[in-house]
Amino acid sequence: MAERVVEHKWFWAWQDDKEERWLEEMSKSGLHLVSPGYFGRYEFKKGRPQKCFYRLDFISQNQNHEDYYQLFADAGWEHIGEFGGWQYFRKLDDGQGDAEIFTDVTSKIEKYRRVLLILVILTPIYLLPLNLRNMIEGDTGWLMNAIFVVWWCILSLMMFSIIKMIHRINALKNTLKQ
């Protein structure tokens, strides 16, 4: 039985390229992704060092996955796993250069727009509890204050993620204009 290794590493939604490079480096060292997990948890299987390409895509969990996965399988990509809508694909290096799942910039922009849509949809959900605090009169206690500070941090992170995703989309759009 192959030995399993768990690594923890955190990547933000706009750092998918960086995550792909890290997974490729792990494969070169003989650790091959088995499943991505919650809070930056990655499970690897030890094996022979190989040069692989890893690519991430983001799709809504409501989409038909069978046709989607078949499309990638037909192109030689192995679906490794899914985490929060992020799909992880791997392909062995066949010596023909860098492998990509997006053949054009427009498709990559659409991926980031799908991520942006989810972030925009979730933001009002995080705003709602903050309005509840305004409706509570009097001293809410230290625990409630601490919860709201954490909530504000999460909301700030959501807003920062939205800004980073918009910058990413705009940078890709600028490459189309050149």
Keywords, separated by commas or semicolons:
51% helix; 3-stranded antiparallel beta sheet; single chain; 178 residues; 4 helices; 6 strands; alpha+beta; 21% strand
Task: Tell me about this structure.
- With 178 residues, the protein is of the alpha+beta class.
- It has four helices and six strands; from the N terminus they run βαβββαββαα.
- It has a three-stranded antiparallel beta sheet with strand order 1-3-2. Strands 4-6-5 form a three-stranded antiparallel beta sheet.
- A hairpin with a 4-residue loop joins β2 and β3.
- α3 (105-135) runs antiparallel to α4.
- It is globular.
Secondary-structure topology with pairs:
Layout: E1 4-8, H1 16-28, E2 31-36, E3 41-46, E4 52-58, H2 65-74, E5 78-83, E6 86-92, H3 105-135, H4 141-177
Antiparallel strand pairs: 1-3, 2-3, 4-6, 5-6
Helix pairs in contact: 3-4
Sheet-strand content, in percent, reads 15-25%
Q: Could you give the count of β-strands?
A: 6
Taking pLDDT < 50 over at least 5 consecutive residues as the criterion, the unreliable ranges are none
Give the topology string: H per helix, E per strand.
EHEEEHEEHH
Going across the major beta sheet, what is the strand order? Answer: 1-3-2
Question: What separation lies between the terminal Cα atoms?
Answer: 52 Å
Q: What is the overall number of helices?
A: 4
Give helix % range: 40-55%
**Mean pLDDT metric:** 88
Structural class: alpha+beta
Summary?
It contains 4 helices and 6 strands; from the N terminus they run E-H-E-E-E-H-E-E-H-H. The protein has 178 residues and is α+β, with helices and mostly antiparallel strands.
